[in-house]
Design a protein that fits this description.
This protein is of the alpha/beta class. The chain contains 11 helices and 12 strands. Helices cover about 35% and strands about 15% of the residues. A 10-stranded mixed beta sheet has the order 2-1-3-12-11-4-5-10-8-9, with helices on both faces. Strands 6-7 form a two-stranded antiparallel ribbon. Bound molecules: 3-isopropylmalic acid and magnesium ion (MG).
């Protein structure tokens, strides 16, 4: 059930629900670690200019269309509050289209999505806001694979940008009070996630299973460049490649070659590399030494959760899945947490930070910064959910964020 708090505008836009907004001026948002975009937000239908055509105003007016997938477990709860933060920070700037997909939907309809849905998203939306996948009531459901991994590959959202910033040393397992402020740029379409492999001779002593780890040079280079571009918008200006090329010689060897081929294109950014096992150790020993980390899909998946643990868990770990087109998919790194779903105590902050990344991506830089600032303020000194040693509810924590947004 979607709490009433959410005001969803459906796609029909004939009514006065269409809000007119001035395009913001482009500016970097270091708060959410987002890739720097200088292009203006894509103007979406209805595209309206104010004033007679012969004398157009200098700014176009836009509304950003967002497809919202709550998904499973705590997903719908936290995404509802993320939507309310966007509505508060930039009233009328977003139009939300609630999409029903979840493991339950998959079971009910015999498929996770209608045919052609990804193509529809490309023309219908500026962004997808995704909650979580995984519902123990539907073991083995293909929902997450079809929709989340499916969107990453079908929409070619090749860069998974995962910023992690310390906010309260009391919730970190680290002894040092050094600040973590890093961004993982995870390749999102290849590696061990290509779903190529085999499982043979089942039930015999010869039983074997293998998965392919795929690295395509062009696809590796584009995400490495993305990492360098991101580093150039940050203060530290460093990129660290994490791979396991000493054991995974072919695909990770290609990553290494691509990385050192591209690094000289960015002479003002320092480049270094670490083996994945050493990087895991350094994440714990000296996380403050990392700025931008670039890695293949599976390594990035593991480092994301490890990095999140360093700042006190997945409660403040957002992510953006981006490609070269304007459509991005935004999801908190955390899962569906079925054990606390429906208790009203899920931490909404990762989803709200994710919404800030979405706002930044569509050009609402001021709203993005205000939402992100509000989240970190609340995480430091506001009410907390139990994962951060507090007792407050999802709604109370969101309320504290909304109060800071005016
Ligand atoms: C993530 C998740 C997904 C992944 C799962 C749900 C398939 O863990 O976004 O990190 O492995 O990419
Ligand atoms: Mg993961």
């Amino acid at each position: 059930m979607w709490p009433r708090l959410m005001r969803v505008r459906r796609s029909g836009r004939a009514s006065g629900a269409v809000a007119l907004r001035l395009l913001p001026t482009a500016a970097d948002c270091k708060q959410c670690g987002q890739v720097r975009y200088t292009k203006p937000a894509r103007t979406t239908a209805p595209r309206q200019t104010v004033g007679p055509l012969s004398n157009p105003l200098p700014h176009e007016l836009v509304m950003h269309r967002v497809g919202v997938i709550g998904g499973d477990g705590i997903g719908p709860e936290v995404i509802t509050f993320a939507v309310s933060a966007l509505e508060r920070a930039a009233p009328g700037a977003f139009e939300f289209d609630l999409l029903p997909y979840s493991s339950a939907y998959t079971a009910q309809h015999g498929r996770s999505l209608p045919a052609g849905e990804f193509a529809r998203w490309r023309s219908a939306y500026d962004a997808i806001l995704f909650g979580a996948c995984g519902d123990p009531a539907y073991p083995g459901s293909s929902f997450g694979r079809d929709v989340l991994l499916g969107a990453r590959t079908n929409l070619d959202l090749y860069a998974n940008i995962r910023p992690l910033r310390s906010f309260d040393h009391r919730v970190s397992p680290l002894k040092s009070d050094e600040n973590v402020d890093l961004v993982i740029v995870r390749e999102n379409t290849e590696g061990a996630y290509v779903d190529q492999g085999a499982w043979t001779d089942k039930g015999t002593p010869q039983e074997q299973a293998h998965d392919t780890i795929l690295a395509t040079r062009s696809k590796t280079e584009r995400v490495i460049r993305r990492a360098f571009e991101l580093a150039s918008s940050r203060l530290r200006r460093e990129v660290c490649l994490v791979s396991k090329h000493n054991a995974i010689r072919y695909s990770h060897g290609l990553w290494r070659e691509a990385f050192w081929h591209i690094a000289p294109e960015y002479p003002d950014i320092s480049a270094r590399e670490l083996l994945a096992d050493a990087a895991a150790m350094r994440f714990v020993q000296a996380p403050e030494a990392f700025d931008v980390v670039v890695c293949e899909n599976f390594v990035g998946d593991i480092l994301s959760d490890l990095g999140a643990a360093l700042i006190g868990g997945l409660g403040l770990a957002p992510s953006a899945n981006l490609g070269d087109g304007s459509l991005g998919l935004f999801e908190p790194v955390h899962g569906s947490a079925p054990d606390i779903a429906g208790t009203g105590h899920a931490n909404p902050l990762a989803a709200i930070l994710t919404a800030a990344m979405l706002a930044h991506h569509v050009g609402e830089h001021d709203a993005a910064r205000r939402v992100s600032d509000a989240v970190y303020e609340v995480a430091k000194s506001g009410p907390k959910t139990p994962d951060l040693n507090g007792k407050s509810s999802t709604q109370a924590v969101t309320g504290a964020v909304l109060a800071r947004l005016g």
